Amino acid sequence: MSKFKWFSLGVLTLVAFIGLYFATDYQSKLADAAQPVIQTYQGGTGTGTSPSSGQILLGQSDGTYAPVATSSLGFSSTYITVCSNGSCNYLATTTGAEVGINQAFTAASTTGGTILLKAGTYNNTATTSSNFRVNLVNNSNFIGEGDGTILQGSNNFGGAISLFAVNNVGVNNMQISGVNQTGSFGTLKVGLRVDAVKNAKISNNSFTNMNGFGSFVYADDGSTTTDISYLNNYFQGNGWQDLLGGGAPDSTQLSTTTDINVIGNFFEQTVNQGGTENINFDTNCMDLTGISRVNFALNNCKGNVVFGNEQAPNYYLAINSNIVTSPLGTTSVAGDIVIQEDGASASATRTPSNMIINNNLLQDGKIGLFGASVSQLKHVLVNGNSVLTSSSTEQNEENTGHQGIYASQVVFGNIYGNDITSNLNNGNIASDTGIQLVNTSSTMVALNNINGFATGIDLGNGSGNKSIFNNFTNVTTPIIGGTNIIGMNNFGQVYIGTSTAGYTLDLSNPSGTNVLRAVNNGTPSSAAGAGIIADTITPTGADNRLGFFLFGAVSTTTPTTSINAAGLSSFSSEAWLPGTNQGAYLKFETTPTASTTRIEQMRITANGNVGIGTTTPVANSQITNSVANSTTTLEFGRAGQNKGTCLKLYRADGSAIYAYVAAGATSFTLSTTACASVSGF
């Protein structure tokens, strides 16, 4: 990062002047306009040498003073003041101020240094693009005296300061003002230009009344711009252009703009001037296009935040803990966070990837991720954001309707833990969707809280999109599209493979196979195996249902309602005293043809009797007809078989007797001979 030396310069200069104040013998002289403010001094106890320009008298251990070059103390040897009243090194008149200011930078061009622009209003009156800016030099720091130092752009060109092809520079603690010119804007109206710069710190400034860019950072003609920090600045614009803009590299892709920090700034777009809203889709706080490795954090933004890719080989973006709202004076322009790939110039060899959007607060806007078919956005993390979409007429960078989070052409996305709320007619607008995926795949949507949308989550038709444990409130349709859905509703009901739950656990498999499977991977034994246990509290009497399995279909009118035509259930046969009395029976139910009522067809009693057509079998097996005065029929074998039918019975002594009808026989035979030994079996 940048190595700035002006803080040490100020401290050591103060120490030096305190020493000079107590010197017993010194002379001073004011420098003329060509001299630095650190003057040469002569005298001092035991000192007979006159310091040269750029030296100071430094107190020695023996109480004397000796001249020391400031460069040997670790800070620049030049400290120059510029003012409008003559009490400084260089005079910058209130009109054409850039001339005097640039003279000061020329004086510091060899060694670098600090240029202090004292309080006052300085008007840049240049009328050509070649000389309308204040131009910094290498190793220079341009500082003001707070908002009292105002550098004003001209009516023809709003440009104020230029950082071009320089290293290790800073612009700090001043107000840079544009021109209040409604109805038009110009690309040359730039408060601070940053081009082909390495190591720059822009901090504690006010960029006000901007019709053009507050600052524009880029690299041109095969150059590199890197390690640029915007810290604690205030940007205010009139809605005609981005407050902080970044340009794409040149068409040859030889230029690089990278490693940009934008931290702790306040951006304010004012799109209501003179009662007329000058709404333009460029009412952005920031639009950085073709820039990699950007850290955008702890900013307050009234307007859109946009990252465009174009020629950049990748992104590496971190967008964390910002407040983004709609521009001041309107509810018709959204305050969005947008990452977009320029499909028209997208290269199949470029992979824009690695983007983090965390813990931001958005009001009247959304998070938009827009990839291109040949250059999708990859590895995108959207986590912990609070998004409120409330402007029914909002416009945004990509006109896709009202969503909290919109992702198009994204691969390997992770959208989780966000709070997304809409108060647009309480979710009755059909286009309203909390989270919408379009042509997106392999994206996880999990643990989001979604409130007030017609559709909670639209997973689209991409492969591998999953939804897990999202919460929906005042949402008409919680989830559509996607696969492998797992969720929980407000009643604590869990659903897997479906978008709604009608039961404590609701399972659905779109492929129609193996909905529920239990596997035991342990060593097989008499106590091992996979199973399902259905328990209830201790029964207090007979006929308390213990558990059940029901089979049927889903209602076509109410998806959470089941039509169960068959089932197996278990009931207690007595009040239970666990460990002593635990009687239970099973019953099997089916629904007769042309009926909608499920009835019991078979029962296994607590003592093991099996009854078909009766609920109270009195024998090991009892078959009756449940319809009164109807014939009960028991049939063995089948018509047309070429073998006999045999029934083996046991007598009281335990010996067997066989009742059979042999093949071709017309009578029933009782015999002690086994059927297998009889002809016809």
Explain the overall architecture.
The chain has 681 residues and is mainly beta. Among the domains are: 68 residues, no CATH class; 67 residues, no CATH class; 33 residues, no CATH class. The protein contains two helices and 59 strands. The strands form nine sheets. The chain has a 15-stranded parallel β-sheet, covered by helices on one side. A 13-stranded parallel β-sheet has the order 8-11-14-17-20-23-28-31-34-37-40-43-46, with no helix packed on it. Strand 3 and strand 4 form a beta hairpin. The protein is rod-shaped, with a radius of gyration of 42 Å. The N terminus is likely disordered.
Please describe the structure with a list of short key phrases separated by commas or semicolons.
681 residues, 15-stranded parallel beta sheet, single chain, disordered N terminus, 13-stranded parallel beta sheet, mainly beta
Based on Cα principal axes, name the global outline.
rod-shaped
Order of strands, widest sheet: 6-5-7-10-13-16-19-22-27-30-33-36-39-42-45
Strand fraction: 35-45%
How large, in whole angstroms, is the Cα Rg? 42 Å
Q: What portion of residues is helical?
A: under 10%
- Low-confidence segments, ≥5 residues, pLDDT <50? 1-45, 71-76, 180-187, 272-281, 392-397
What does the average pLDDT come to? Answer: 78
Can you count the beta strands?
A: 59
Number of helices: 2
**SS class:** mainly beta
The largest sheet is: 15 strands, parallel
- Report how far the terminal alpha carbons are from each other: 98 Å
